[in-house]
Amino acid sequence: MNRQVFFLSLLLTGSVLCLPRPTAAQRGGGLEEAMGDRRPDMPTVAMEYNQRLKWTVFGQVLALDGKPVGGAKVLVDVGGGGQGRRTLNTNLQGEFRTEYTLDIKLYKTLSVEALASKAGYLGARETERFAVDKGTKGMFLVLREETADPDVLPLATLVANLAPRLREAGSEGGVPASVRKDYLRGVEQFLDKHNPVKAVQPLTKAVEREPGCVECRTLLSLAQLQAGSWVGATRQLAAAIKIGTPEKPGTAKPEPFLILGVMETWRRETDRAVGFLRRGLEVQPKDPLVLQELGRALILRQEWGAAAESLGEAISLRASPEARLLRARAVLETGDREEAEEELNACLGDRKPKDLPERNRLVYTQLRERLELMSYGEVKSVVKQSVEELIQILPELKGLEPAQNQDGLAQLVERVGQGVEAYFKNFPNTVSLEEIHAEVLNRDGKATESSDEKANYLLLAVPAKWGLGLDEYRTAMGVAGTAAPARKSNSMRTAGFACAPLVFHPAYQAGSSFRYLGEQVIDGRKAHVLAFAQQPEKAIPLSRFTVGRISQAVLMQGIAWVDPGDYRILRIRRDLLRPPPKSRLERLTTEIQFSEVHFKEVASALWLPREVVVHVQWKGKVFRNRHRYSDFRFFKVEAEEKRRALGIPTEVEGGPQ
Predict the structure, then answer these.
(1) How far apart are CA 310 and CA 229, in angstroms?
(2) Quick check: 295 pLDDT over 90?
(3) Under CATH, to which class is 155-373 assigned?
């Protein structure tokens, strides 16, 4: 089945199920049967001679992208106390299956509630009622990632934005009088008491009594979504859309299209999202929330001009301040810095950045940083300097055989990017011994102070929408297992080295310029040599310089040595593209050597940092940190721990106090 229409199509097309034959034995049962590929000799309900019914309950747990989720826990409950409750685990295809043998006098229909859970995901919940003459069909539970995606509208914000409309619908002249009481009970439980599970019951009752009540189905869909029922919510929204017809003026509402559009942005199905939102505007062309979310979906499609236009119209209709943040991003991508600045100022108004909601504050800060970085202007980077100049200033390039042309550059960058993408996507949790030698240098390059530290260095893979994410942290250790000494006040903490190849990741390549310098022999092997430099007008900052409470984004440039066989990065050197203003940071150079690490748990090797040297020149002082890594091992997370996320690597995270 086409993935783009998977969730809606499974709701709008029924499965063809055979009638049970009393003497047939139960066999089979799986996803293919649930989707309609059933044989007459494979019933899901079978009657035994002692007047007991055998029911098969089965289904599949999926992620938002339609991929199966293996290893999920599924609690199935058919009522009747503890005997009707079972805990199952999904297989690698995300499937689960169990059978119940029940008294026909007590179970002429079967009500099933299924709850799915897995670490890193929000829980899913679906309910179904099956009749004897229809048999059971596959249940689908959709798990949403626990980590919030900053580029989309959160469910809680969607509910909050729609709450005034939903409350107003409960007033006289809104929902039919026959179900108003149930509707208002749903409003109370969901919007006032924040209990979506309890809200589902009265709202379901209202829908059953008044199937044509669009408002009832809309509120029910939101309560179901909040309770974890993706399939149930989609079913209600699909029905709400069918109700509105041109022959019945006023029956069509924009809210079902809006909610479906937002749901599709969660799945990054932006074409479908834009389609739903535009249909919502056909119903109500001046709906500011629909216009705002259409602008967001167009941003996800990188249609900056169309996004700015839609968001501008939303702002004119008094959309939320977030519309200005979104429009600031859209016009910034078109290169209009002045207009982006105006939108950010208008969004802030009389408030301070700290007064913004947390998710808006993050976006505001990122856009401000982008504007600041764009002020770099023209910078002569390693990409623009001649090979002769580079060899003079970078001793590491001694012995370079210069390239004659740039004919193979695009293909080389593409292949390196593919390797980097796979590196982050398939990264396992690892722990190693880290030895840190920190020095403070004088003007002659001699150490005046030094300290040594050992630590367990953990790299933990975290779920991410596009397969990228590492959490990195240290647990300090002293000599012979004793407590580690306190860090000296004059030392400079450095971190974030495993994320250094991010500049080559396909998600970030558009923000940098690249140049093929040629070939060079390093460590006894020939390597391709690539220069890179982030572009101030396009780049997303990948490094930060943090001292105390002040943290500044920095742009980088550098050289990477790439294996010509498998296109893995063997060595990388990174330097500041330009010191950030008012930071007093003059130099930040990181030299990383990667080495091949083998684990018995996996067949293929990983390339991990083996040695890192960081030079920092700040406030007239020079610091040099040398990191060495050894004894790499797989690491299994046994318990929840608070970790310092490094979605943007922290090159330097603390300075002298």
Answers:
(1) 31
(2) yes
(3) mainly alpha
Pairing of β 543-547 and β 650-654: parallel
| DSSP sequence for 403-451 | -S--TTHHHHHHHHHHHHHHHHHTPPPEEEEEEEEEEEE-TTS-EEEEE
Of 1.10.10.10, 1.20.1330.10, 3.40.225.10, 2.60.40.1120, the CATH number of 3-143 is: 2.60.40.1120
- CB burial of 253-279 (b: ≥16 within 10 Å; e: otherwise) equals bbbbbbbbbbbbbbbbbbebbbbbbeb
Give the burial class of 137: count Cβ atoms within 10 A of its Cβ; 0-12 exposed, 13-18 middle, 19 or more buried: buried
For residues 614 and 625, is the Cβ–Cβ distance under 8 A?
yes
255's tokens = 């809210």
390 and 397 in contact (C-beta within 8 Å)?
Answer: yes
What pairing do the DSSP bridges indicate for beta strands 585-597 and 569-576? antiparallel
Q: Give residues with Cβ within 8 angstroms of 268, minimum separation 6.
A: 65, 300, 465
Report the length, in residues, of the chain.
657
* Domain boundaries of the chain, sorted by first residue: 3-143, 155-373, 387-654
Spell out the residues 6+ positions from residue 603 whose beta carbon is closer than 8 angstroms to its own: none
Q: Fill in the DSSP letter of residue 529.
A: E
Longest dimension (CA), the chain: 95
- Sign of the Cα torsion 19, 22, 24, 26 reads positive
Write out pLDDT tens, residues 78-116: 987 778 899 999 999 999 999 999 888 778 889 999 999
Predicted local confidence at residue 462, as pLDDT: 65
CATH of 387-654, one of 1.10.10, 2.40.128, 2.50.20, 1.10.3470: 2.50.20
User: Under DSSP, is residue 173 helix (H, G, I), strand (E, B) or coil?
Assistant: coil
Residue 458 has pLDDT above 90, yes or no: no
Q: Read off the DSSP letter of residue 71.
A: T
Beta pairing partners, 495: none
Q: What is the mean pLDDT of the chain?
A: 83
Average pLDDT rounded to a whole number, residues 310-332: 95
Task: Please name the residues in contact with 494: beta carbons below 8 A apart, sequence gap of 6 or more.
Answer: 590, 612, 614, 616, 625, 627, 651, 652, 653
Residue 8: pLDDT band (50, 70, 90) is very low
CA-to-CA distance for 44 and 28, rounded, in angstroms? 9
Task: Give burial (CB, 10 Å; 0-12/13-18/19+) of 66.
Answer: middle
pLDDT digits (tens, 9 = 90+) for 259-277: 999 999 999 999 999 999 9
List the Cα angle 455/459/465 in 5-degree steps: 155
| Range 396-405 contact pairs with CB under 8 angstroms and sequence separation of 24 or more | 396/559, 396/573, 396/591, 397/517, 397/520, 397/529, 397/559, 399/520, 399/521, 400/517, 400/518, 400/519, 400/520, 400/529, 401/518, 401/519, 401/520, 402/517, 402/518, 403/516, 403/517, 403/518, 403/519
